[in-house]
Design goal:
This protein is an alpha/beta fold. It contains 22 helices and ten strands. The strands form two sheets. It has a six-stranded parallel beta sheet, sandwiched between helices. The longest helix has 17 residues. The N and C termini lie far apart (about 70 Å). The mean pLDDT is about 90.
Length: about 500
Amino acid sequence: MTDGSIDSATDGVPPCPEDIEQTGDTLFATGRGEGAVRLFLDVTTRHPDDWRLAVTAATIILRHSSAYDLVEAFLRPVLHRWPDTVPAWSLLLHVRVVRGDLAGSHALFAELLDRYPDESGTLCAAISTALLQAGHPAESLRILLRCFENGIVTPTLLKNMGIALFCLDRSAEAVSWYEKAEALAPTDYGITFGHACALIKAGRLDEGWPRYFNRHLTPDDRDAWYLSLPRLCPGDAVAGRGVVLFQEQGLGDTIQFIRFVPDLLAKGAHVTIVVPRPLVRLLAQSYPAAKVCETGTLARQNGYNYAAAIPDLPHIAGATSLWDVPAPIPYLHPDPDDIARFATLLPERRPRIGLVWAGEWRPQSIHALVDQRRSTTLATMATALTPVAATLVSLQLGAPRQEIADWTGQTLCDPMGSVQDMADTAAIMASLDLVISVDTAPLHLAGALGCPVWMISRQDACWRWGDAIGRSPWYPTMRIFRSREATLAPILKEAGMALRTWARNWRPARKT
């Protein structure tokens, strides 16, 4: 098999599903998803008698996209010709759940259990996984408990139990289930990585960071030469050594963990920070002793001894408890001239409240489902927060910014058309009195700037925010409004009531 095609010495011999999977993964990962689908259609059309190829195609499409119609299109012929194909039923069950048909999926699950009792473990794993990805941890927990009561125990089910408890802010309990799962499958990456996140969420950083350090790295620039450098580890001598720090995850992760750069500088390291363009200018302003460059622009050169993913910095710095989180806030600094320039775009009336209602959308099904839960609409957020005796300022970028055109409620100032990068956004935040944001990068930026910030958090909150607490040691100026259900609407109403009280009591800060 080659790039997007099939090499076969003998006509009529179907390719191996493993080859289809590997090629499909590669095509999707390199932005050629349409080519992967064409490949799948070609293969399944030429080999209609091998149901494994169609199921593999459906699996890969579901792994990399939210094209649920396409997934069902590959599964339908399989279930018509081979109605007892449990892997196909499991995928269909998953699609029903993530599309929101909970009643239909539960009915199908019960039917399949009656029809295939020997496949109970597979079916339980399918529906519990789908419920977790769709943001229904309590439903998943109920099914998993019934499985265990019936003596059905597999590493996947034990892992899913850990995930469900993690999502329900019961991280200490989740850790014990991950331990059981890891005992049965010590090399399963999904289990070991979930175990690390559960330990961190439970506040056991001394155990969690070393496990988190062993994750599969997913840097933005996978072909960068510096990835071949030795990976910086705790205890490595860095005095006089060149260290490349690179973004591995999202902008928010980089903002959260870049605070540890002074630790490396104080130890004598020569630090180069490689990040996407939106962060370059802000980090250069904030860490003048470091070199900052855009991802993809650092030319191969001598003088570098180590590389480190930025989310590894807490582990490298020895932050073994939340008490070790560096205290100085702010640690990012907008340019004073930028602050003055953007201040002229804002209404004079105060207090000024910045709003962010949606995170960046990602195409993979599992991420798109999270994005749906962590985001809301301008209409939903602003309706819950207004009317309020304050000036509203949009901090929203991307496609959701277009919603402003349809908003007819309290006036919303939108200076984001003049924003070129995160340094500009930081300059706007410097003139605000409060930021209210869903869990996305501007939230981290406000916290790093020391701006008062309220987070509107989904129920199954990220590991970094701990269990059901209203504050964060990472950002002392942050208040967390955590949803207790799948939608953000009720918690936004609570935030709206708190905001009106806040606005009534707000007083300008005294100048010193």
